[in-house]
Amino acid sequence: MGKFTRVCVFCGSKSGNKKIFSDAALDLGRQLVSILILALFLSTFDQNLEGFFYEEGNYQVERKMDLVYGGGSVGLMGLVSQTVYDGGSHVLGIIPTALVPIEISGETVGEVLIVSDMHERKAEMARRADAFIALPGGYGTFEELLEMITWSQLGIHNKPVSY
Ligand SMILES: C/C(=C\CNc1ncnc2c1ncn2[C@@H]1O[C@H](COP(=O)(O)O)[C@@H](O)[C@H]1O)CO
Fold first, then answer.
1. Are 134 and 10 in contact, with CB atoms under 8 Å apart?
2. Ligand 1 centroid vs 41 CA: distance in angstroms?
3. Of 81, 118, 149, 151, which is best to mutate to test ligand 1, by the most ligand atoms within 8 angstroms of its C-beta?
């Protein structure tokens, strides 16, 4: 498989009771839009050794991955989507009609696709993403993650799943 461009993130519709959960959501959001890599760059020319020295340094490289997620503005979902959106990548939220009043409060970011039910939501998330990552969450996150793992096991998709 080539470079991933669209990553589906499953995560809690609540923020949880530990800061580490929201930190993880913010961190993943930032990592999707950029990555810090180590690079070698020309630093000095040493005449005695008749050659160039290279010095380890680092710089920021844009990763610009797009996000597919559950479409909510609440909890960890809201944090990840806002972070990726603020980082300049495309955000696609997929949410069933019945969950709009529950999982969206205030404004959502990016594109919102309203589907008829949970099954269609998961199928669309699976179809539109190149890889899946699960963050902390509740039963819903667990269910979504397990479904992607079992679909992989059954050969329904061959995309990486990470948690
Ligand atoms: C397929 C059906 C029920 C199976 N349950 C769920 N399937 C898919 N997604 C779900 C389910 N229950 C909740 N969710 C969503 O997960 C997200 C995170 O929830 P969490 O509990 O806070 O981790 C959230 O968007 C939920 O909507 C019905 O036929």
1. yes
2. 47
3. 118
In a domain, 18, yes or no: yes
- The structure's pTM equals 0.84
Residue 97 class from Cβ within 10 Å (0-12 exposed, 13-18 middle, 19+ buried)? exposed
Query: In this structure, what CATH number is given to the domain that contains residue 140?
Result: 3.40.50.450
CA of 13 to the centre of ligand 1 (A): 9
Asked whether residue 75 is domain-assigned, the answer is: yes
What string of pLDDT tens digits covers the 163 residues of the chain?
457 899 999 999 999 999 999 999 999 999 898 755 444 444 444 444 443 344 445 455 567 899 999 999 999 999 999 999 999 999 999 999 999 999 998 888 999 999 999 999 999 999 999 999 999 999 999 999 999 999 999 999 999 999 9
Report residue 70 as tokens: 């559950």
